[in-house]
Each structure stands twice: as structure tokens, then as C-alpha cells.
Design a protein that fits this description.
The chain is of the alpha/beta class. Helix content is about 30%, strand content about 20%.
Amino acid sequence: MRIRCKPWAKPELEACPFYITDPKAQKGNWNALFPKKQPLRLELGCGKGGFISQEAPANPDYNYIAIDIKNEMLVLAKRKLEEAYAQKDMPLDNVRICIDNIMYLTNCFSEADRIDRIYINFCNPWPKSKHKKRRLTHPRQLVQYRMLLDGEIWFKTDDDDLFEESLEYFKEAGFRIKQMTRNLHEEPQMRYFETEHEQMFDEMGKTIKFLIAEPDHSVSMDSLQDLLQYSERTH
């Protein structure tokens, strides 16, 4: 779905105190942007902010970065965050939002920016074979995340093919699957904050797939670096 240009979106974001105008300039220094040094969590492709506006205020002992590629989407996330924190009468001090192309995440993050958890919620499935390298769960991407990650990746999708192929992607990129389900809504103990997409897909009768993956430390970083360099050459 094409997003209509909203000329007011960029100025509104630039006036926002928790919007980061130049994420590349923060490489290696993200923790310094928060008043408290706490474990750092990252949402890739936050969209309209339905997830981060629930997750972040519910967990004030963590710092959050929410990334999207469109001003028009991120400005809606900004508004949802402001509303959520106002409702709880909390200072909005543990979230930062920014625009970036997630395919090149290591342009903005270094191995000094240790990430406790990464959330990938209902990313574009890119079903055509020639586009699959754009998937946020492609091995090229997962290796970049693994270089930063101390904890886990939480991944949700409604797309069967993306989920099944991602199971192989995670293994190839040096992760092991810690938990998974092909029908999240039949596993109440595994459910957590829902996005707008999840609610919509649930109403449509689609099953939600979910997994938690963690680095497999038996896989050497040298082999993963080789994988990343090969993928970069062939991308």
C-alpha cells in the first residue's frame, strides 16, 4: 500500500525531543542519548507505533529505539507514544525514534551499542524470489543484528512462506530457535502486546506465527563475517 506524502510529518518530527535527526551520527553512542543507562531494545519497522507505544511505557527499566523508513509512519508512532505516556502520567524518557533504512543497520550501530532484544513485527514478506534479500529476516540482515545482540530476536508474521523460510535463515545466520509457534493465539502464555496488523489479521482469520531466536555461540563470528561479506557482494 502506497503511503501518501504528508508535508507536515517531517517538521513535526524534527520538533520532537525524542526524535533522532541523524542516527548515523549516534553510532557507538546510543546509550548516551537516554537519561538512564539501561538495557537497550530495538524495534525494526515500528510503523504507526502500535507496539512500541505499549511495550516501552510498560517497561521503564529498558531503553527503546524504534525505527521506520517513512516520516509519514513515524510521525504517527510519535503521536501514539505521546498519548500513551500522557495517559500513564509518565515522562517519555526511555524511547528514541528515527528514520533509517534497516537494510544498512550497521551504518548506525556498532558493536559498542549492545542490544538486549530486537523486535520484528509483521515486516514486508517480499514474496518474489528476486526481492527476498530485502526481508528483515534474511541472513544478510540477521548477521548484522547478531553482531550487536546480547539477547534475543522476537519475530511475528502472518505470512506462512516468510515464517518457514525464516526458520532456515536464522539457522544459517548462527541463531537457534528458543521458542516458536505457528498459531500464537492458541498459545496464550506466549502472547504479548499486539500491533495493529496483528489485530487486523486476527479478525481476518489468519494465524499468527511467532518465534524467539538467540545466538548460537557454537557458530563462530568469523564464519558469520564471511557470510555477511559474501551477501554484500551478491546483493
